Amino acid sequence: MKMVETELNRELVVPNNAEELFNEYKKLHKEERYAQGLESLFQSANNGFAKAEYELGKLYYFGNKQLQISKNYTKAFEYYSAAAEQEHALAEYYLGFMYFKGQGVDFDVKQAIYWLGQSANQGVNEALDLLGRIYHLGYDVITPDIKKAEKFFQFAVDHLYAPSMFHYGLLLEELQRVEEACELINKAAELGNPEAIINYMSRFN
């Protein structure tokens, strides 16, 4: 009986700090001990660990059958916000995206631009690309600004981000810089970007 109690006590030991709790979540998740892992994740987030807050934001944003978490944009927004306030780059991107789409929060393009800008400053390609598209086409109160669009696209292209190669190529086509446009779109297609592949194939039909 004592041996059983000892084993149970070992299982119930909970790491004390937030990072340890997050690492415990990853370990338990890998072992498919999902319920225990999720408890560690919540504890880590409740102790203000940005990676845990971001992880919960992602789980609520996309939903997760293994963990029995349904999509909930309101909760996703709350956790992304908490992580973004601690300068978590991907949380900043998703927070900006949710403001842009009005998911879990009222649509607010200025807040979207702010948080996407924070994320872009940390080199997140998705944020750079979305800002490029917003300034290329204009959106709501944001008027088109080709110079800004080019700047954001170019940063992402420098990171070899295929979607931005395609979107920047479309912008360059509009500017009659056809040779540069074709080079970027072809490169995006080579990297497997679906939009670029369709565009490339349509030119030969």
- What sequence of helices (H) and strands (E) makes up the elements? HHHHHHHHHHHH
| N-C termini distance | 77 Å
How is the main sheet built? none
Strand fraction equals: under 5%
- Low-confidence segments: 1-13
What does this structure look like?
With 205 residues, this protein is mainly α. It is built from twelve helices and no strands. Mean pLDDT is 90; it is low at 1-13.
Any key phrases for this structure?
about 200 residues; mainly alpha; 12 helices; about 0% strand
Task: Write a brief structural summary.
By secondary structure, the chain is mostly helical. It has 12 helices and no strands.
Q: How would you summarize the topology of this molecule?
A:
Blueprint: H1 2-12, H2 18-30, H3 34-46, H4 50-62, H5 73-84, H6 89-101, H7 109-120, H8 125-137, H9 146-158, H10 162-174, H11 178-190, H12 194-202
Helix pairs in contact: 2-3, 3-4, 4-5, 5-6, 6-7, 7-8, 8-9, 8-10, 9-10, 10-11, 11-12
